[in-house]
Structures are given as C-alpha cells and as structure tokens.
Amino acid sequence: MYSELEVKALEQRNYHRIREMIRVTYTMGYNIMKPGPWDNLLKFWSLLLILFTLLSYYGHWQLFVHYMQDIPRISESISTIFQSLMSIMKMIYYLMAPRRFYALLRLVCRHELLQKCELFAAVSDLPVAQPLKQRVANTMDQCWISTRRQLMFYLFCCIGILLNYFVNSLVVNIYHALTEPDNNYEVALPLPSLYPNWMDRGMTFPYYHLPLFLESCNLYICGMGAVSFDVLFIVFCTHGVGLMHSLTHMIEYATSPLIPRERRVQYLRHCIYQYQRVEAFALELNNTFRQIIIIQFILSLFCWGLVLFQISIGIATSLTIALRMLMYLAAGGYQIVIYCYNGQRFTTASERIPMAFYECTWYEESREFRQLIRMMIMRTNLSFSLDVSWFTKMSLPTLMSMIRASGQYTVLLQNLMQKK
After folding, report:
1. Is the Cβ–Cβ distance between 191 and 165 less than 8 Å?
2. Which of 115, 149, 217, 245 has the fewest Cβ atoms surrounding its Cβ within 10 A?
C-alpha cells in the first residue's frame, strides 16, 4: 500500500502524534523506541522510582494507624495508595517485557499489517485501487486523530491534579515559613501522610525535604505512570479499530463494478487473508492487557468509591477538597473510561465485519464466491473483544456496572461514618 518513502514519513508522523507519551515513558524509566545504550540506566531509574514510592507508604501507614477512626481523613490517603499501586504494577509489567511493547508500537506506527496486505498490489491496475487506498488512509488517519485527542485530554487531566497536590502543599508551607519563622507549624506534604516527629519541625533539612521527595515520587508515579501505560493501550486499540474499519471497506468493494467479475474471487481471498492478520493482532492485544488490567479494575472500583465519598463530604465541609476530588475523578476515573470506551469501540468495529460480508451482493456472484462468503460469515460471527482477565469484557456495560458498584461503596462509607 505504501512506498518506502511513504512508510518512513508515516512512521515519523505517527510517532510525532504520540510524542508526549514517549517523553513521559522516558521519565518513568523505560524506552519504547529503538534499543539504546541507556536502556539499563533507565531501568535502574524506574526501579528507584518504585523503591521511593514504596518507602513513602510508611507515611500513609502512620496516617492510617493514627486516624483509623477518622474515615474522611484517611480515605484520600488510601485512594492515592491504590492509584500508585496500579501504576507500580504496570511499571513492573512493562519492565518484564519491554521489547514486546516496542515491537507492537512499531507495527502500529508503520501500519505493517496494511503493508503486508497483498490486496493493494493485486488491484493496482484496476480503477478501484485509488479510491480504496484513499478511503483506507482516511480511516487510519481518523483513528490517529482520535488517539491524539484522548492522549491530550488524559495528559492535561493528570498534570492538573498533580500540580494541584504539589503546588497547594508548597504554597501552604511557604506561607507558614514566612508567617511563623520559628518553625512552630506542621508542614503539608503533596499527598496526605504522616511522619511522626518529622512534620512538626517546619521546613528544616532533612525533616521536610526527605518526606517531600518520597511523596513527590509517589505523586508522580500516580499520574505519569498511568499516562505512560494507558496511552499505549489507546494507541494499540484505536489502531485495531482502524484495521477493522479498513477491512470492512475492502469487503464492501468486493462486488463493486470497478472490479471485473473474474477477479472478484481473488479479491475476496485477499480480504480473508487480511482478516487473518487482523484476528492475530486482536488476539495479541487481548493477551497483552487482559491479565494486568484486572488490577486496574479492582483498585479503581475502590478508588471511585473513596473519591465520591470525599466529594460528598467536601461539599458540606470544604469546597477545596471537593474540587480537588473532582479533578482526581477526571484523571483517575478516566482510566477505566479509556479501557471500557475503547474496548467497546473495538468490539463494535469487529461486529461490522460479518455484516459487511453479508451486505455485499454475493447472491449475484459465482458459486465459489458465495461459498467463501458463507464460510466467512460463520467464522466472523464471533466478534473480537478485549477481556478483563476471565471475569468480564472491556465494554460500556462493564463501565456502568463499576459506576453502580462504586456508588454502593460510597453509601456504605457514609453509613459507617454516620454510625460513629
């Protein structure tokens, strides 16, 4: 479909569209581009980030122990622990198979499955070649535009909540340092935590700087660790959707007057070969994410409940906390929306494939053509899907079930607080 120069230009353009995600992954300690001499150093930095984040859990544990009876105070700390645990598990998963993600990303950015499609070479001498190629190119371009929009929205949401946590604590500490020069105040850290005998000494070294560094690492992993991994899923999933839409367009042309009747069986066979490639890609994508993502869904369920509980409390007590939790919900809550929304698009696109086979005028074609159509309708009747382990599928009904469950969890927390 593409010449060598077109492939290079396409690859460069697609990498440019996800440049923010690539830069974030470097800061998280892994390289999704070509292997380089700094890969081992990046892995070491990733392990250090994980270690510093785990050390910061000491402060969250102390807060939990000291204020176990105060549910509103510890709920935000627990939700941030869940969020960072999700990011740590994703980082570890990536470090175990970095080249797998590199190979998938390269395949996607170069449109290798479309390059391998023999159909375009087979119809290069026919009038259908140019409109088909243009339609497929437009379809893939729209998918990359969708990827770009989701990436930028998610990135800005995460940056917004990270800045809110960090800048708010920094401004509060600077204000206390200027108004109380004797350091007789308790410092505020980026994330709610407690370091006994350290936090009441003001901004003196190292009693303030060490907890600040640990909590900042935790905060950064919460946001950017999610962005670096979840956006990869967006890229792969929307590319799969584009491949299925492109295959549907190819099938629609199978009985077009632009293709001579004697060459339509050969054309249909090339569509079937392309379907096999798309099927293999869908299976690989599902196997890559199906197990690791169960952790995301379980912990996000509790996070949503805790955040909604904080919002309900904050509306009555502190509008600042309520607004912060709304920002948190826009970033952390969007994680599950990414998987369910794109998973639904993936399934819906695959359901169009058997309809495309059926809707072409196969009944006017040869016996061999009709036999291939019947075979493919039966084969494609089982649509592709993206699974959450063995429990459920990434879909909009799953998203609605999680919203209902998190709402019930919020009500439970409210009842517990009222009883106290």
Report:
1. yes
2. 149
Q: How far apart are CA 215 and CA 200, in angstroms?
A: 17
Is 417 within 8 Å of 72 (Cβ atoms)?
yes
The 10s digit of each residue's pLDDT in 143-154 is 999 999 999 999
| Calpha distance 274→248 (Å, rounded) | 11
List CB contacts of 212: < 8 A, sequence separation 6 or more. 189, 190
Smallest CA-to-CA distance from 391 within 376, 401, 377 is with: 401
Contact between 82 and 47 under an 8 Å Cβ cutoff? The reply is no
Residue with tokens 């090339």: 270
Q: Which residue has tokens 């053509």?
A: 369
3-state secondary structure of 407: helix
Burial 54-91 (b: 16+ CB within 10 A, else e): eebbebbebbbeeeeeebbbbbbbbbbbbbbbbbbbbb
* Spans of all domains in the chain: 4-419
- pLDDT score of 315: 63
Asked if the model's pLDDT at residue 97 lies above 70, the reply is: yes
One-letter amino acid identity for 365?
E
The CA-atom distances, in angstroms, between 294 and each of 89, 114, 227, 297 are: 11, 31, 17, 5
Give the Cα separation of 179 and 170 in Å (integer).
Answer: 14
Q: Is the pLDDT of residue 274 over 90?
A: yes
Beta strand 387-388 with 392-393: parallel, antiparallel or unpaired? antiparallel
Can you tell me the distance from the alpha carbon of 136 to that of 114, in angstroms, rounded to the nearest whole number? 9
Distance, C-alpha 356 to centroid of its chain: 30
67 CA to centre of own chain: 34
Of the candidates 102, 131, 136, 101, the residue with the CA atom closest to the CA atom of residue 117: 136
Q: Please give the Cα distance from 96 to 326 (Å, whole number).
A: 34
Say if residues 259 and 267 touch (Cβ distance below 8 Å): yes
Within 8 A by CB and 6+ apart from 419, the residues are: none
Phi, psi of 34 (to 5 degrees): -65, 145
Residue 356 has pLDDT above 80, yes or no: yes
